[in-house]
Design a protein that fits this description.
The protein is 32% helix and 24% strand. It has a seven-stranded mixed β-sheet, sandwiched between helices. A six-stranded antiparallel beta barrel has the order 10-11-14-13-12-15. Strands 27, 28, 29, 30 and 31 form a five-stranded antiparallel β-sheet that branches. Strand 32 and strand 33 (768-769) form a beta hairpin.
């Protein structure tokens, strides 16, 4: 009789077969007289889609919602169906009497196995292999401590409930929101999810803060002081400062210029300041070991790696190279019985790392420490650390991530770094100027990162000696007033968004829910990268350099959810409540079926809100047809006389309020010809039914209907220049004629009766009108002068740019160099005292 072992991936199955020994490969599995080792390839089975229950549900209709199956069905995933059939066949073999679940140790791994096992209709007894290390010894250790299926029942039930709850909310709310926001337009999906929508909400809230931000001017008074050993700089500290509700206020910020001028006048009237200072020793403990989120965050900051890329690299270091422990962990601690393992790992270090590991072993620094070894802080898996496996040849990215993990592991055992911190106060009458110096005196763990006591980052102050008097005085050498502005909060990067997702419990008021999210946050370490990538893939967020910027589609979704009073989907509360209850299911304190019943009730309530008639709300846009403000709901803008209606989604383009204002500003009222146009904006981006992007203009025709006007047809460049059109200039590059078309400046060249249009420039680009002079300069010099007043579609903020002609004839933006940003603090490195002359 044989035991069938099912791993999550083929590479893990291969490692298990090597650990067990004497197994021969037979196709996609390994076998000997005792074991059969095979694997999934990630998820093989998924919950059936609505159309699998009833074919008519394949069409998205509001009338069919909510969709709540009495019993959830499972089906094989099409692309991995062959692998599922293979496992089903192995499970059915008569010589297989027991099954070991060797999928990844966690909620998701449990789901992969249990769905496969259930759909295969197997009834054979199951045990659980719980691995945290992929070394041969780590695998054998896990086999020595197999867990029973009874131990894993609650975890499997929680995994099932999470999956079914995500289906109920995701399927129903996505279909409902899509139909209400976009109607029947193909290619537009308003994806809604328990984790992705609150995560998007975090970025939307930050974007609202940025747009609402009004910069405030403030002043800093900075003075240069001299003592016998050199000079130093001090910044005025306001005596009336008290930390309050104004989060922009600081002790060194003066909000009135007159106050800054008064201080400067006092400095001018004096030549000396009295000086007092305080010195103290401070320590900086080593950072804790990595969990996955912290590793992703720091890799994004240091190397710009997206979170998904860091996870891929870490997974390769774990599975393929066997050089680190399981990476998908949310723990920063190790079990209390792993001290011997840590000594073994330190002893296996090579190269530069071995030199840093040696003092740890020589000085006996591996000892019980609650910041490192703490069973209470270890859940399914412990922190990410290296294994004793001999280093292999790694790719550049793999080497960087491994070096981060190895150095952090070594550094955690080192003593704290020590600094001498000097705080110096220089007083002129009632005005106090503060200067701080911080010098590294004992590098401790920082030496692992190449920092030493002579580090350049130190700020050594010139000493105040006996020759400066008692009490000491300093000469006032110079002073200045720095004028600066407060800055809006920065947009999220992947690093900061990962931190926000991890700490999302802080955004929840309910203490129990916040505690549940303290452990899990938004998503899990293994899924957060996937959530961010999904938001980008669904066009809710765009990457701009390292920043993550919400799109117009995201704004539209949140506007809609707010209108139907479904804001709960946008806040972390829902995730917090689910995680709290899923944790209770894991601990056997809540019945999973009761939880699913609650989620089904919630889905029904949300669909009722989506279906309910939606009242109109006023806008600040005055409609030319009746002179009154237009009204809006989630799908359209409308005039109060009902003559002019503009849908918010036109040809895949999400119409913004600013674009509506431009249409109304360019509007011709009264009687016009049937072929005439009342208003035109553009070109703007549209999306065809096949998902292909194209440029066209948006017009209002004589009947007050909004239509797409194609500037290009199927012919050469597609531009139709009327035969009676009058040229407005001559192209300096080709000698062809320049024409002023409704939406663009166009060059026409005639060669052997064939008409071509090698160059064109839109007459309106991002709300800015272009001129013939701009087009001529572009053709002559390849670049316009700086044009001011473009309006960003995303941020709605004005910006300035050059227009540059590319080799292919298209036009791109080129931005002027940014002025260097002033540092938040005005302190400079203190000047060193002059070197003494050599007496010889």
């Amino acid at each position: 009789m044989k035991t069938l072992i099912i791993a999550e991936k083929p590479s893990v199955a291969a490692d298990i077969s090597r650990a067990l020994g004497r197994l021969s490969k037979n196709g996609d599995y390994y076998e000997n007289d005792e074991y059969i080792v095979s694997s999934a390839v990630g998820h093989l089975v998924e919950l059936a889609m609505p159309e699998d229950y009833d074919k008519k549900l394949g069409f998205w209709r509001l009338a069919d919602l909510p969709i709540v199956p009495d019993t959830f069905k499972l089906k094989p995933i099409d692309k991995t169906k062959k692998r599922f059939q293979e496992l089903k066949r192995l499970l059915a073999r008569k010589d297989v009497t027991k099954v070991i679940n060797a999928c990844d140790a966690g909620r998701e791994g449990e789901l992969i196995f249990s769905y496969t096992y259930k759909l295969a209709k197997s009834k054979k007894p199951v045990e659980r292999l719980w691995m945290s290390s992929m070394t041969l010894s780590g695998i054998r250790e896990a086999f020595a401590h197999l867990r029973s299926s009874e131990e894993m029942h609650n975890l499997a039930d929680a995994a099932r409930c999470r999956s079914e709850a995500d289906w109920l909310i995701g399927i129903n709310c996505t279909r409902g929101a899509t139909k209400r926001m976009f109607g029947s337009r193909a290619g537009n999906v308003a994806g809604v999810g328990r984790v992705q929508t609150p995560t998007l909400g975090v970025t939307m809230e930050r974007e609202r803060q940025i747009r609402a931000f009004v910069p405030r001017t403030y002043f800093r008074v900075v003075a240069d002081f001299g003592v016998s050993a050199g000079t130093y700089e001090g910044t005025l500290q306001r005596p009336d400062y008290k930390k309050g509700d104004d989060n922009q206020d600081r002790v060194d910020r003066i909000w009135e210029k007159a106050q800054a001028d008064a201080v400067a006048a006092a400095l001018s009237a004096h030549t000396q300041a009295t000086v007092e200072e305080e010195k103290k020793r401070s320590t900086q403990a080593p950072p804790r070991l990595y969990d996955l989120t912290t590793l992703q965050r720091e890799a994004n900051n240091r190397f710009g790696y997206p979170a998904r890329r860091t996870l891929q690299i870490a997974q390769a270091l774990y599975e393929r190279h066997k050089m680190i422990t399981y990476p998908r962990t949310d723990s920063k601690a190790l079990p209390e019985d792993t001290l011997p393992t840590c000594r073994e790992v330190l002893g296996s270090m090579q190269g530069d790392l071995a030199g840093h590991a040696a003092p740890v072993l020589e000085n006996g620094w591996v000892k019980p420490n609650r910041r490192i070894f703490n069973n209470a802080q270890v859940s399914d898996h412990f922190a990410i650390i290296p294994t004793p496996e001999n280093p292999k040849k790694l790719g550049e990215d793999e080497a960087k991530i491994f070096d981060m993990i190895a150095r952090r592991f070594i550094a955690v055992f080192y003593p704290s770094a020590q600094f001498d911190v000097t705080t110096r106060l220089s007083r002129v009458e009632a005005h106090t100027f503060k200067t701080e110096g911080r010098v590294l005196v004992a590098p401790g763990y920082l030496s692992v990162y190449g920092r030493h006591t002579d580090d350049e980052n130190g700020a050594t102050l010139p000493a105040v000696g006996p020759e400066d008097g008692t009490p000491a005085v300093a000469a006032i050498k110079d002073h200045r007033i720095d004028q600066e502005e407060t800055r809006p909060p920065p947009r999220y990067t992947e690093a900061t968004l990962l931190s926000a997702m991890e700490g999302a419990g802080k955004l929840v008021d309910d203490e129990e829910l916040a505690e549940a999210m303290k452990e899990k946050g938004l998503g899990t370490p293994a899924t957060r990268a996937q959530v961010i990538e999904r938001l980008i893939g669904e066009k809710y967020i765009e990457r701009e350099r390292r920043e993550l910027v919400p799109t117009a589609k995201a704004e539209r979704l949140f506007e809609f959810l707010s209108r139907i009073k479904a804001e709960a989907l946008t806040r972390p509360d829902l995730t917090g409540e689910w995680e709290y209850k899923l944790r209770k299911i894991e601990h056997g304190e809540l019945d999973g079926d009761d939880f699913i019943h609650e989620i089904a009730t919630l889905a029904k309530d949300l669909i009722e809100r989506i279906k309910a008639p939606e009242p109109d709300t006023p806008t600040d846009v005055v409609c030319p047809t009746d002179g009154k403000t237009m009204v809006e709901n989630s799908t359209r803008y409308a005039s109060q006389d009902g003559v002019f209606i503009v849908y918010k989604t036109i040809g895949g383009h999400l119409l913004t309020l600013d674009e509506l204002k431009l249409l109304c500003a360019d509007f011709k009222t009264g009687e016009i010809g049937a072929d005439e146009v009342r208003a035109r904006i553009g070109p703007v981006k549209f999306v065809s039914k096949r998902g292909k992007a194209y440029d066209a203009c948006l017009i209002v025709n004589a009947e007050h209907k909004v239509r797409i006007e194609f500037d290009r047809s199927e012919g050469e460049n597609g531009i139709q220049i009327p035969a009676d059109a009058v040229p407005v200039g001559v192209c300096p590059k080709t000698g062809g004629s320049i024409f002023e078309m409704p939406v663009a400046w166009v060059v026409r060249v005639m060669e052997k009766e064939k008409e071509t249009h090698p160059y064109r420039l839109s007459r309106r680009i991002l709300a800015k009108e272009t001129t013939l002079a701009n087009f001529l300069q572009l053709l002559t010099d390849g670049k316009t002068e700086l044009i001011k007043g473009f309006i960003s579609n995303r941020t709605k903020r004005p910006f300035d740019a050059f227009l540059v002609l590319r080799k292919d004839g298209n036009v791109k933006f080129e931005f002027p160099p940014r002025p260097p940003r002033k540092k938040a603090a005005t302190r400079k490195k203190a000047k060193k005292p002059p070197a003494k002359a050599d007496a010889s």
